[in-house]
Amino acid sequence: MSAYTKINFMDIENQASDGNEIRFSRKYLDSRDLGLTLRRFKPNHRSDSAHKHVSQEEVYVVISGSGRALLDGKVEELKQWDVLRVAPETVRTFEAGPDGLELVIAGGPKPPEGDGVKVEANWPK
User: Fold this and answer.
1) Is the dihedral of CA 80, 81, 87, 88 positive or negative?
2) pLDDT band for position 63 (50/70/90)?
């Protein structure tokens, strides 16, 4: 492992195929214990899938825009510069506001095989 690593998010391939954006940096950072992800949702986009983790804790920072997080069935409003910590077992998904939603996500240590579990999102009516 090197003393430091630098990467620009825009040099990382966008993994989203639905007009949104998700760029995972962990493998490019050569990091053992953390990863950073850039996640951009287009205006008014609501995720129809959610996820939780077995062991990885995450922190979400709203860089721009606004929206909502659905956390174990509870809706939490989000605005610029909000910081949201989510325990591994908490089911989470997001909805962007009228100006979109841009998040930087920090994830803690995870097993080499990953530990994300996809589940259906159940937004309240």
Assistant:
1) positive
2) very high
Tokens of 23: 């760029």
Question: Which superfamily is assigned to 20-120 in CATH?
Answer: Jelly Rolls (2.60.120.10)
Residues 6+ apart with CB under 8 A from 58: 85, 86, 88, 92, 105, 106, 107, 108
Q: What is the pLDDT of residues 79-105, one digit of tens each?
A: 999 999 999 999 999 999 999 999 999
Separation of alpha carbons 113 and 105, rounded Å: 19
For residue 125, the model assigns a pLDDT of: 83
114 — pLDDT class (breaks 50, 70, 90): confident
What CA–CA distances, in Å, run from 3 to 11, 26, 27, 34?
Answer: 21, 15, 15, 15
Residue entry with tokens 């605005």: 79
Residue 118 near residue 51, CB atoms below 8 Å: yes
Q: Where are the domains of the chain?
A: 20-120
What is the C-alpha to C-alpha distance for residues 106 and 31, in angstroms, rounded to an integer? 12
Res. 1: pLDDT tops 80 = no
